[in-house]
């Protein structure tokens, strides 16, 4: 396990320090790049100003399209897969800074946030090259304020820890478009349908059916955010939904919004 002594020290990119316990790094990554499992001594807010990435932690898999950002606590193992070319903007926070600003009690677990227009512009402003410490301090505090207002778990797929349940989850994630019967999956992983159903509920807080639906909707979000030429109707058909209204209903159940509302930035 790689522990970076400095923010993302092993990765080349433009790096700057605010001089007050917060570091800024800008990177561009091509589709297909994988940043293998690693951790940092600092906490971080990772934002793809352009493109889509997937962040995997021991707790689950987070899909991060352009209007999302992910909070990663210090020393949390995580990997990043680039699903579409990304312009990554990352803010690293020393633990002493978080404690001093009384932020640390609320930021001990990873989560994805929906990036409002204000948070988007705030993050970009931090990287515009202006050397104004007072302005930078205000922008960072504004970003942290917005961070607390915007938690969004719609693109999170919790991953079970039991080996049998984990194998079943991997089968579904390898092909979320297929109709997966729990009886068939149970035989494949060497357990009963009843046990597998119980494990999914206890380890993901979702029923097997709801978990599979979340995996399919996450696949839909990935396709809508990485392929600008695909339509919502086409994605619905690719995922096996009988109609666009059926897809929209399932999408709203998971995300709270319609597919059209989801892909549009506020």
TrEMBL record:
<dbReference type="Pfam" id="PF02311">
    <property type="entry name" value="AraC_binding"/>
</dbReference>
<dbReference type="InterPro" id="IPR003313">
    <property type="entry name" value="AraC-bd"/>
</dbReference>
<keyword id="KW-0678">Repressor</keyword>
<keyword id="KW-0238">DNA-binding</keyword>
<dbReference type="InterPro" id="IPR009057">
    <property type="entry name" value="Homeodomain-like_sf"/>
</dbReference>
<dbReference type="GO" id="GO:0003700">
    <property type="term" value="F:DNA-binding transcription factor activity"/>
</dbReference>
<dbReference type="Pfam" id="PF12833">
    <property type="entry name" value="HTH_18"/>
</dbReference>
<feature type="domain" description="HTH araC/xylS-type">
    <location>
        <begin position="166"/>
        <end position="265"/>
    </location>
</feature>
<dbReference type="InterPro" id="IPR014710">
    <property type="entry name" value="RmlC-like_jellyroll"/>
</dbReference>
<keyword id="KW-0804">Transcription</keyword>
<dbReference type="GO" id="GO:0043565">
    <property type="term" value="F:sequence-specific DNA binding"/>
</dbReference>
<protein>
    <submittedName>
        <fullName>Transcriptional regulator, AraC family</fullName>
    </submittedName>
</protein>
<dbReference type="InterPro" id="IPR018060">
    <property type="entry name" value="HTH_AraC"/>
</dbReference>
<keyword id="KW-0805">Transcription regulation</keyword>
<dbReference type="InterPro" id="IPR011051">
    <property type="entry name" value="RmlC_Cupin_sf"/>
</dbReference>
């Amino acid at each position: 396990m790689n522990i970076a002594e400095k923010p993302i020290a092993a990765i080349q990119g433009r790096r700057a320090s605010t001089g007050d316990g917060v570091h800024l790094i800008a990177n561009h990554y091509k589709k297909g790049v994988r940043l293998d499992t690693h951790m940092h001594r600092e906490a971080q807010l990772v934002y793809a100003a352009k493109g889509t990435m997937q962040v995997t932690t021991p707790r689950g898999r987070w899909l991060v399209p352009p209007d999302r950002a992910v909070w990663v606590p210090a020393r949390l193992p995580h990997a990043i897969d680039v699903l579409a070319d990304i312009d990554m903007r990352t803010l690293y926070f020393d633990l002493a800074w978080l404690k001093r600003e009384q932020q640390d009690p609320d930021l001990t677990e990873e989560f994805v946030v929906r990036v409002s227009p204000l948070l988007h512009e705030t993050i970009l402003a931090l990287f515009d090259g202006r050397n104004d410490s007072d302005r930078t301090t205000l922008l960072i505090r504004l970003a942290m304020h917005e961070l607390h207002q915007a938690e969004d778990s719609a693109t999170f797929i919790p991953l079970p820890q039991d080996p049998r349940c984990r194998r079943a989850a991997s089968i579904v994630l390898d092909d979320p478009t297929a109709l997966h019967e729990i009886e068939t999956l149970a035989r494949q992983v060497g357990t009963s349908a009843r046990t597998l159903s119980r494990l999914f509920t206890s380890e993901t807080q979702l029923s097997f059916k709801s978990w599979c639906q979340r995996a399919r909707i996450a696949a839909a979000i990935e396709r809508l955010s990485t392929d600008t030429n695909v339509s919502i109707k086409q994605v619905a058909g690719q995922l096996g939904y009988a109609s666009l209204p059926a897809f929209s209903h399932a999408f709203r159940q998971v995300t709270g919004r319609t597919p059209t509302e989801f892909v549009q930035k506020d």
